[in-house]
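TICKET: design request
STATUS: open
ATTACHED STRUCTURE:
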């Protein structure tokens, strides 16, 4: 029997005492005597207090174990909440259980950091500890076949298993890293002698430091970026759920922090089904964070790109927007930046209005001119203070978009947009939609009135007129919840290009698999003299089945579970950036074999995140070394979860230089440097080709703090002619630089006129009047 240093605490009774006692009994009875078992330890490290289910100390590793006593089918993976599917009175119900893998991974980091710190303090030795995080399901009817593993039996670094497999997994680690003496030293640090009898509820630790943002929230991925900040999907370690976190561009500005605190407090009181709730805010390391509801769905802008809405759906969406605004206005809060990107639609068809944080609040006084140009009311365009009627003008713009798929006001630049809003009239609805009733023109005319007092003053008033104008069309159509958003998996599939691409890859793999099977049948049925069958080809000594190469990668992709974890060594051409997060780039790569057959693969690359600042078509031929793993997506045909191959742990080495650009007719060695607030921007050179102009730039942060650098909306001016960018960056050339960090990249504009012999180039243009970076070049 193992040596048990501490029994299970009664504090676990709230969270699954039965499961923990099952694990404790299994560990005590089945592990060797010299293995040390600690049940229910509590650790406090850097504001982070965690109650861990079990720690097992062995010569080979330290195992941090999270136990879950749940019956039924468990589904989940690296990202997002896991779900327990179980029967209740004969009906299936689905219960979110957080993300146990993310939770135990966080606990493991705390244990490792705690040990390294205290071990050095006591023994003056810098020691690295081999850590192994485990999630174990203890119920006899637990089914973990629905877990989406990134490698065999693992979700990220976390091993997921059933109770019957726990001991055998621990015993499979046989390489010794610690002596028995060191094991007991570790145990004494984790649970001192005077705490080993503690099996009751722990006392409140009043002397702990204030909770920090970084200890409570684990940032998972970036999901959006706007005018005021970056939005992340995050995991709340305290409440065991996913949230959205917005890191504001306030930087070290104390006055802005003060304003955002006031805005957060007032916005947090908005409690309405159609408004994204603000839960909390944090100031830490000079940054300001807002914590809010995470809405899994589409923005209205994304939805409008995909389809035209029915009249019933238009009414449903606008009704929920109006309800949210009516409520906020009654609470004294106005929005002033209402737009498609600030309206979210979840999988149930529920509309959520977000970013009231941008609003000027009535009790703080009327707002100055802020907002997004295409949605601005005339008074905002004139620089006057906005009010409630400005919000209703934006609702009118959204209604026009819902009906037609277009904006009511246009222009080739911001000045022209502003002029159209002030003096122009929207094109008639029938230009875009022939079945638009004439009565709708009257509704829109009032909603988009130039004078604020002539507009609708409440959503109830607008909805009444809209309902009358649509008439029978409302009765014949299906509502939003009945049709498009009924299937959450379908919604998640359409959420971004990355998931669309996954399905394309999956379908391609299925087609190749079908062709492969067909060829095997043909070769067996109708063998040709002098040629080997497909079955024989698999035994060909030229194909090393332990190493995935250009020659067998298609076979590996068709049998990803069989080949998962094997080393990949291939050569191919990077084709496109599928997705970018703070931690990695997701790339599409084309790989061809000796017969010219092309396989397109997904690669997770953890290198320089600014690698793809340049034009995507120019990505080079590369050599890649990594491992075959997988990710998951939803098959749109049947809603089933399917695995998609993914190359991980990748190292990319360019074989050829960037040579995909058209030849330059004229090259200018500029080397102009502008410096502002410690940020150095250099225009190194300009290349003018027949159909494009290439700007080669270098940006460096020479200050002592990190900065958000914007080169957004680049353009060049020659006389009265303005030349705009041809290829748009995913992050609109906005990125964060640490002190002394430097990046280089290219921006592609339209062709310059060489004969004019001069140009003015401006970078970082925006409507809020921030000073752009301006280069004047003559030749």
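STATUS: resolved
RESOLUTION: sequence designed for all positions
ATTACHED SEQUENCE:
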């Amino acid at each position: 029997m193992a040596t048990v240093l501490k029994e299970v605490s009664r504090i676990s009774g709230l969270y699954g005492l039965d499961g923990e006692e099952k694990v404790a009994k299994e560990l005590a009875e089945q592990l060797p005597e010299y293995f040390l078992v600690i049940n229910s330890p509590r650790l406090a490290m850097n504001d982070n207090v965690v109650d861990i289910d079990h720690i097992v100390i062995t010569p080979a590793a330290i195992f941090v174990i999270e136990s879950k006593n749940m019956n039924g089918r468990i589904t989940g993976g690296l990202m997002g909440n896991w779900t327990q599917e179980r029967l209740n009175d004969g009906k299936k119900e689905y219960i979110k259980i957080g993300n146990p893998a993310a939770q135990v991974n966080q606990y493991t980091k705390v244990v490792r950091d705690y040990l390294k710190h205290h071990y050095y303090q006591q023994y003056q030795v810098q020691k690295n500890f081999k850590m192994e995080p485990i999630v174990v399901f203890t119920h006899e009817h637990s089914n973990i076949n629905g877990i989406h593993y990134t490698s065999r039996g693992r979700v990220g670094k976390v091993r997921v298993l059933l109770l019957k497999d726990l001991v055998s997994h621990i015993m499979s680690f046989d390489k010794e890293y610690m002596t028995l003496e060191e094991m007991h030293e570790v145990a004494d640090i984790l649970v001192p002698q005077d705490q080993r009898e503690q099996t009751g509820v722990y006392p409140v630790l009043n002397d702990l430091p204030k909770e920090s943002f970084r200890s409570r929230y684990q940032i998972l991925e970036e999901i959006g970026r706007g005018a005021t900040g970056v939005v992340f999907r995050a995991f709340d370690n305290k409440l065991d759920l996913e949230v959205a976190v917005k890191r504001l561009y306030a930087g070290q500005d104390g006055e802005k922090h003060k304003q955002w605190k006031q805005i957060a407090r007032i916005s947090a009181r908005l409690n309405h089904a159609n408004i994204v709730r603000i839960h909390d805010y944090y100031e830490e390391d000079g940054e300001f964070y807002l914590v809010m509801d995470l809405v899994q769905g589409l923005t209205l802008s994304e939805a409008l790109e995909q389809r035209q809405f029915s009249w019933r759906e238009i009414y449903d969406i606008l009704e929920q927007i109006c309800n949210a605004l009516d409520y906020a206005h009654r609470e004294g809060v106005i929005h002033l930046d209402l737009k498609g990107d600030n309206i979210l639609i979840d999988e149930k068809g529920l509309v959520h209005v977000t970013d009231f944080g941008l609003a000027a609040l009535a009790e703080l006084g009327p707002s100055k001119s802020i907002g997004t140009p295409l949605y601005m009311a005339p008074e905002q365009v004139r620089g006057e203070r906005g009010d409630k009627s400005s919000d209703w003008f934006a609702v009118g713009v959204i209604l026009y978009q819902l009906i037609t798929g277009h904006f009511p006001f246009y222009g080739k630049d911001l000045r022209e947009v502003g002029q159209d809003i002030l003096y122009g009239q929207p094109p008639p609805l029938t230009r875009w939609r022939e079945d638009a009733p004439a009565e709708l023109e009257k509704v829109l005319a009032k909603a988009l009135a130039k004078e604020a007092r002539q507009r609708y003053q409440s959503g109830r008033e607008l909805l009444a007129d809209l309902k009358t104008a649509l008439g029978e069309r409302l009765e014949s159509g299906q509502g939003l919840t009945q049709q498009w958003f009924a299937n959450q998996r379908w919604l998640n599939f359409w959420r971004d290009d990355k998931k669309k691409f996954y399905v394309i890859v999956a379908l391609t793999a299925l087609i190749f698999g079908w062709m492969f099977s067909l060829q095997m049948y043909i070769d067996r049925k109708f063998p040709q003299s002098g040629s080997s069958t497909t079955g024989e080809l698999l035994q060909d000594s030229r194909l090393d089945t332990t190493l995935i190469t250009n020659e067998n990668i298609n076979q590996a992709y068709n049998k990803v579970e069989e080949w998962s974890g094997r080393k990949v060594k291939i050569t191919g051409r990077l084709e496109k950036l599928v997705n970018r997060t703070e931690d990695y780039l997701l790339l599409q790569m084309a790989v061809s074999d000796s017969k010219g057959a092309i396989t397109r693969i997904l690669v997770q690359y953890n290198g320089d995140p600014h690698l793809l600042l340049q034009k995507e078509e120019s990505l080079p031929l590369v050599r890649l070394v990594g491992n075959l793993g997988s990710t998951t997506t939803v098959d749109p045909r049947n809603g089933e979860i399917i695995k998609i191959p993914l190359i991980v742990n990748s190292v990319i080495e360019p074989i050829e230089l960037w040579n995909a650009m058209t030849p330059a007719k004229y090259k200018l060695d500029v080397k102009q440097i502008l410096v502002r607030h410690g940020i150095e921007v250099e225009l190194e050179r300009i290349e003018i080709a027949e159909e494009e102009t290439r700007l080669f730039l270098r940006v460096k942060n020479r200050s002592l703090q990190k900065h958000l650098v914007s080169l957004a909306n680049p353009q060049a001016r020659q006389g009265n002619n303005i030349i705009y960018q041809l290829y748009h960056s995913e992050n609109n050339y906005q990125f964060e630089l640490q002190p002394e960090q430097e990046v280089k990249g290219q921006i592609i504009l339209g062709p310059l006129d060489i004969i004019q012999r001069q140009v003015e180039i401006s970078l970082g243009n925006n409507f809020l009047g921030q000073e752009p970076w301006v280069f004047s070049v003559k030749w």
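CLOSING REMARK: Residues 678 and 755 are 36 Å apart (CA to CA). The first strand starts at residue 3 and ends at 6.
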